[in-house]
From TrEMBL:
This is Cytochrome-c peroxidase. GO terms for cellular component: cell envelope. The keyword Metal-binding applies. It comes from Flavobacterium rivulicola. GO terms for molecular function: cytochrome-c peroxidase activity; electron transfer activity; heme binding; metal ion binding.
Amino acid sequence: MLKKIAAVVVVALSYSCGSDDSSEYVEIDPYANITATFGSNINPNNLANYANQTIPNYITKDNTAGNFITDKGATLGRVLFYDKNLSSNNTISCSSCHQQANAFGDTSIASTGVNGTTGRHSMRLINTRFANEVRFFWDERAVNLETQTTMPIKDHGEMGFSGTNGDEPFSGLITKLSNIGYYKELFQFVYGSEEITEGKIQLALAQFIRSIQSFDSKYDVGRAQAANEGQPFVNFTPQENQGKQLFLAPPVFDATGNRTGGGLGCAGCHAAPEFDINPISGNNGIIGRINAPGIDITNTRAPSLRDLVKVDGTTNGPMMHTGVITTLQAAVGHYGTINLAPGNTNLDVKLRPNGFGQQLHLTAPEVNAVIAFLRTLSGTNVYTDPKWANPFPN
């Protein structure tokens, strides 16, 4: 009797020998190309847990909007995310600009593409699922994450399937992937058909990216033990609790935009406990361009403040769309003195109280306290968890 093995097709080949009829059985593995390519990194019969990860009960935001995370879909998304075949010259993948070691961000100011560099600094991809803001890119030009996932692939400078400047169109990528054995098996595995479409690619990539979550920080340990956000966290130092209160409390301004009391108002744009950007936020006062003249006031989106730095305090790359901010001290300092730059008609109203650029008059202890708090937002698992790692053997 043949032992039944899950997900293995058994084919009976009948033949006659003399006067006796018998049967020979050949086991055909439908995942042979997956196994040959990824080895133990992907086991279709024992997938990593993407769909049922633990989410703290105080996290209430979710922008999944129907494309629910499945273990199968996120596994396909992981392969697509790390596969350099998605670029026109097989040199760039999504992970080239969004590196696990840097909280899925980039340490370079501008990331390298197939035909140059990106026009803006690559945004970290931490907790993208847990936000009120559903639009993506710094200028929010993508209406949702699904749409965003294939836009870099169709960009001439980034991944090169633009259909312009001598590039193949996106249909060329679909033809390319359709001729790769492991994609035939993966799309069959996930969707019940080998057919590859842009929509299926978008769904899988979005599932993988939304699965990347970070809730094992010092902040999360404290929040789990507190009745509410404003209560002092028992695991925090006095400085960290002071920084938390400064972060949460709104400032008090006089008639000319000078802070006379209260906190720093950071939560007005980065509300706890997700610390993502408020959808109605305007420009934050950074209006430059990377290696280009003129100003850019359209940048109103931002990644979550979680995992700005690693636990050891080193940064996960520069901050802001221009990468002009490289330390937490500089980031806090930027908001301490907001200048009304000529041409910035999109400056967030919260940064120009009573029509004046805010002057927080930060003290050194306040700056150090807020930095100490921001460091509590970093976890450890996101940097090492194998389910978010490169599935292709080195």
